[in-house]
Design a protein that fits this description.
The chain is α/β, with parallel strands linked by helices. Helices cover 57% and strands 11% of the residues. The chain has a 7-stranded mixed beta sheet, with helices on both faces. The longest helix has 33 residues. Bound molecules: guanosine-5'-diphosphate-alpha-D-mannose (GDD) and manganese (II) ion. The site of guanosine-5'-diphosphate-alpha-D-mannose has 25 residues, from strand 1, strand 2 and helix 3.
Length: 368
């Protein structure tokens, strides 16, 4: 028998908790391999949500209540995870909203996916079979869709469709590892921080479609402006794709600067200056990518590994040069040479960047 704790955060959900709790227990009662608890984490709701839950405690022995300060959704979850881990040592933890937007009848599907070997199950709205409410106002739809797209492309992890949702099953070992990271994110951004951490840890991910229902009672506490700001900040500090792009740009300046130095100041031969500058840029890119962009999967600290990876890195870089040279000449032949810099930018953006990013990930900085 394995233990699971479904963590449900509440802030002013008096009209919802009383309906949700029996529904959750009803939909998981046939899962005989599991001992399932609910932990409500309430942030001192002024509408007395906490008191309503407290009255239900005697009726449901597997219902628990944790009261915390009002410090945001992420803080409530982190506190509740810590509490649940200490008190129950569960195998599995859940995230679930209290406002009935997350249909409890989906719960068994999450358990099935875990039993089939997933470490982290995402209830996804943006995949086949999933949906967001039709009755949402256009601005809310745009905010949600756009927010997710920004994260998907910001991390260049297109296979994850729903980054921000809050209906998830996560094995406890991941949450335990993630605690020190997610403690820094007290708002809704915590959802992205936890998911990003799990992926970098090599958790086996599984998405199942969910139909997100609009709440009937109470109102959403999400602050769109804040969330968008937090999303950009998080991506810029944590996306290896963005860091890889910055390193590339830096490499361009290193290359250019050293060429200039050698050719103009030292008066060396042009070919020699170029050779020194490109190789210096390649070395600095290699080091920065290893210790910064892909630091979570940096190379094994062995001379042989560094050497073989560095050779591969040089090969990929030569490939980039070849693609650019041939591509620009081809474009110039077809469209004329006046706009060579436009071709160069387009080729770098749409061919060289994806090409090198994919090859680095596949052959040099492989997932653990
Ligand atoms: N304890 C606590 N403290 N609970 C909170 C807090 C807080 O500060 N803020 C929100 N909650 C609870 C709500 O009571 C609800 O049960 C759940 O967290 C989700 O909050 P909503 O206010 O209903 O947010 P939403 O429906 O707009 O947000 C949904 O979509 C987001 C973005 O996709 C949720 O699924 C979020 O988890 C998700 O990030
Ligand atoms: Mn909601």
């Amino acid at each position: 028998m394995r233990l699971a704790v479904i963590v449900i955060p509440t802030y002013n959900e008096a009209g919802n908790v009383e309906r949700l709790i029996p529904l959750v227990f009803k939909h998981v009662k046939d899962l005989s391999n599991w001992e399932i608890h609910i932990l409500i984490v309430d942030s001192e709701s002024p509408d007395k949500t906490g008191e309503i839950v407290r009255k239900l405690l005697s009726k449901y022995p597997r219902l628990h209540l944790l009261s915390v300060d009002k410090d945001g959704l992420g803080k409530a979850y982190t506190d509740a995870f810590q509490f649940a881990i200490q008190k129950f040592s569960p195998y599995l933890l859940f995230e679930m909203d209290a406002d009935l937007s997350h249909d409890p009848k989906e719960l068994p599907h999450f358990f099935r996916s875990i039993e089939k070997g997933a470490d982290f199950v995402i209830g996804a709205r943006y995949m086949k079979g999933g949906s967001i409410p039709k009755e949402w106002a256009p601005h809310r739809k745009i905010f949600s869709v756009l927010g997710n797209l920004i994260v998907r492309f910001g991390f260049m992890k297109l296979e994850i469709n729903d980054w921000t949702g809050g209906y998830r099953a996560i094995k406890t070992w991941i949450v335990k590892d993630a605690l020190s990271h997610i403690k820094n994110y007290s708002g809704y951004i915590f959802q992205i921080a936890l998911l990003d951490f799990a992926i970098k840890k090599g958790a086996r991910m599984k998405q199942i479609p969910i139909q997100f229902a609009d709440r009937k009672i109470g109102e959403s506490k999400i602050n769109a402006g804040q969330v968008i700001f937090d999303i950009f900040t998080y991506i810029f500090t944590h996306s290896s794709f963005i860091k890889f792009a910055i390193v590339g740009l830096l490499g361009f300046f290193v290359d250019f600067g050293i060429s200039y130095l050698f050719i103009e100041k030292v008066k060396s031969a042009v070919w020699l200056g170029t050779l020194i500058s490109t190789e210096t840029a390649i070395i600095s890119n290699f080091v920065l990518n290893n210790f910064w962009s892909f630091s979570y999967k940096k190379l094994e600290n062995k001379v042989s590994v560094y050497l073989s990876s560095f050779i591969k890195f040089n090969l990929v870089s030569s490939g980039s040069i070849l693609i650019q040279t041939v591509g620009i000449q081809l474009a110039a032949n077809i469209f004329g040479r006046q706009l060579w810099y436009v071709y160069k930018i387009l080729i770098i953006a749409f061919i060289v960047i994806p090409y090198s990013y994919i090859l680095y990930n596949r052959f040099i900085w492989k997932e653990k």
